[in-house]
TrEMBL record:
Residues 32-164 form the YutG/PgpA domain. Pfam families: PgpA. GO terms for biological process: lipid metabolic process. InterPro entries: PgpA-like_sf, Put_PGPase, YutG/PgpA. This is Phosphatidylglycerophosphatase A-like protein. Gene3D superfamilies: PgpA-like (1.10.3760.10). It comes from the Bacteria. It comes from Thermobacillus composti (strain DSM 18247 / JCM 13945 / KWC4). One of its GO terms (molecular function) is phosphatidylglycerophosphatase activity.
């Protein structure tokens, strides 16, 4: 009997799937860039959406972020299909206030980019601007218990990444990426 081939993950496939599933769930990198702009434009008045989107794409290139996105979307979809076991099904379907695992998963993203990301996340999670308002709307039958927090975490991380790069640029006269 031949040896089974060893498992090898294709990183490009994971990144492609991440972007594809975000879009299937109604979220684009531009939507997330608008959230970054919302967070950072008070500090950087000349900030463009293109610059924000650059940082969003950089955050989405991280494997930890991709894992959280794919996991959260799958859990939301399973809840839409009624395939989670009780009482988890009802907690996810109704985005139960004391069910904090959606935030914990999102914090795994924020954790990649430092403490400023935590404060950004708390703020944007309460404000729910832009796409977050749409994802949090429970009237369309879709469940985004995990995705709304994940999108907020991606935006918060991109804003944190940007703030760190701009500070470095300011201190050293270096161009930010």
């Amino acid at each position: 009997m031949p040896e089974p081939k060893p498992y090898v993950l294709n990183s490009k496939e994971v990144q492609r799937a991440t972007l594809e599933w975000l879009e299937k769930r109604g979220v684009t990198t531009r939507h997330i860039a608008e959230l970054v702009h919302y967070l950072q434009s008070p500090y950087f008045p000349d900030l463009t959406l293109e610059e924000c989107e650059h940082h969003v794409v950089a955050v989405l290139s991280k494997r930890e972020v991709q894992n959280a996105v794919l996991t959260g979307i799958q859990l939301d979809m399973l809840a839409e299909e009624g395939k989670l076991l009780p009482p988890l099904q009802d907690m996810v379907r109704h985005d139960e206030a004391l069910y904090g695992i959606d935030e914990v998963l999102a914090l795994s993203i924020v954790n990649v980019y430092g403490s400023i990301g935590f404060t950004n996340f708390g703020y944007i999670d309460k404000q729910k601007p832009g796409i977050l308002n749409k994802l949090n709307d429970k009237t369309d039958g879709e469940i985004h218990t995990f995705l709304d927090d994940i999108v907020g975490a991606i935006a918060s991380s991109a804003a944190s990444r940007m703030a760190h790069r701009k500070q470095e640029e300011k201190e050293n006269g270096l161009p930010s990426d």
